[in-house]
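Priority: low. Protein: HNH endonuclease. Input follows.
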Amino acid sequence: MSETFLPELPQELWRAGKLELAHGVQQFLQVIRMASAGLGQFLAEIENRGAKDLYGHGSTASWFAEMAGLSRGEAGAVVKRALALNPTRALDGTEVPPVAPATAAVAAQGLVGDERIDQILEILKRLPADTSVEDRAVAEKILGELAPNAGPRQLVEAEAKLLGWLDPDGNEPKDPEPKEPRREITLERRKDGFWKLTGLLDDETGARTAAALEAHAQPRPVDEFGQADLRMKCERMGDAWVELLDMAIACPDQPGTSGYRTLVHVTVGLEELRSGLGTACLDFVGTMTAREARLAACDCLMLPVVMSGSGEPLDMGRLRRFVTPGQRRALNIRDGGCAFPGCHRRPKNCHAHHIEHWADGGPTDLRNLVLLCGFHHRLIHHGDWEVRMAADGLPEFIPPQYRDPLRHPWRNTLHHV
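Result:
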């Protein structure tokens, strides 16, 4: 096993710049993963020799639990992973190859963590029982080579393709018996400003709701920069509800909207809207930050009532600020989906972002608009990324310095061949 050195910590970490902080996280993450792989080699060797003979314990997991101060279940998961990634020995002394040698190779380099390793091992378990040794090895190699640059969703997609290759017929579908429809929805505003949504759905409606939410709640794929989706499932489901609501509001047949994405009124001061500092009044019943109001107004998710310093209404949301259905169709064709580099989101999941905000004088025309999904829309408003329109009339994105010190422009090439 090669010797590994810990990266040096700055003496005063609070003085470190964001580029240095990002590099430090990357270095320590790789060290942690390499150390985990090295630990697995030791545990596999203890298993081969026998924990009872070496330390008087009935199993390697039992000894490791005591050694590391872990529960039996926690220690068992670590040992199980170690045995899958490292060669073991049979009772007659012959070597048994690891279950996932390709995955073990990238794990040893610190390029993949325990979560993706466990996901690959679970996928290998789900392969058809009659899969040949050769086909199983090919499948594991594909997953192992994909893992360093893949997120959980990409591995799920890879599993589906592998199952389609190994078992093209699949399981015979079974249609459940429909139940008596029953649907109840209750929506109430709490004192803290949040809204509580409760409901009861019949089996069919519940299944349709779950399918719609799951489709929009999938983790975002890891982009070209290695950015993974860290939201919990409940957070992803909440964001999926917002996407479905935005799509319904934007529907041309939606009563009262005529295809425009405006539904609520937000009262905000002119200076607050321009600076993003302060608060705004939401539909006369609640509040939101001026920063959130600026983001929402970008795609006309609200009808802004802009006030002067003396409290005089300056504007009631003139239609020239709205992205018209015709402009939206042109944006869908030009960008093909979220224009942020590496994003797979389709046009129906996107907002129309004003490159120069209309509060700062930016026009609502195609040269000043770009499609962004909700996550990347917020990133552009609140992060260090920048977007601009290139000379050929297509949007390009300037990464922050810690991503690219020279800040070369990037484009999304996934939506157009």
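The chain has four domains: 13-166, 182-259, 263-317, 325-398. The two ends are 44 Å apart (CA to CA).
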